[in-house]
């Protein structure tokens, strides 16, 4: 049997259920003992039942939290880059393929979403420029 990792993390909406993986039993079956629940939003690690987590458990969970947060951050920025591509494809579609009925269906929602996005981006850029001007004047 292939060496399995000592822990398995079942991804949940905002974290994971953590299992200790055990193959050292008579039947050589894979047993997964639930040991903790992790909340990525606040970093809480909550032992399952009346279990006391070892320092090794805590270290493995903290390591997973760091790797998972880095992965989620990479995915988030990748999603934004895909959104830019979708906006470009949407502009091309609206210009060259969309029927009047299709445009009637999506125009208001798109205009509002783009207006909201533009407002946020302009405000945030102005904030960055102001901070940069303050930093350079010191």
Automatic annotation (TrEMBL):
This is Uncharacterized protein.
């Amino acid at each position: 049997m292939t060496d399995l990792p000592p822990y398995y993390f079942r991804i949940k909406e905002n974290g994971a259920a953590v299992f200790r993986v055990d193959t050292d039993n008579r039947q050589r079956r894979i047993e997964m003992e639930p040991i903790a629940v992790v909340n990525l939003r606040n970093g809480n690690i909550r032992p399952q039942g009346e279990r006391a987590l070892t320092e090794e458990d805590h270290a493995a969970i903290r390591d997973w939290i760091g790797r998972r947060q880095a992965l989620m951050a990479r995915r988030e920025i990748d999603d934004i880059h895909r959104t830019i591509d979708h906006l470009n494809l949407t502009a091309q579609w609206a210009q060259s393929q969309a029927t009047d009925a299709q445009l009637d269906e999506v125009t208001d929602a798109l205009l509002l979403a783009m207006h909201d996005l533009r407002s946020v981006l302009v405000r945030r850029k102005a904030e960055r420029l102001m901070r940069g001007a303050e930093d350079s004047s010191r």
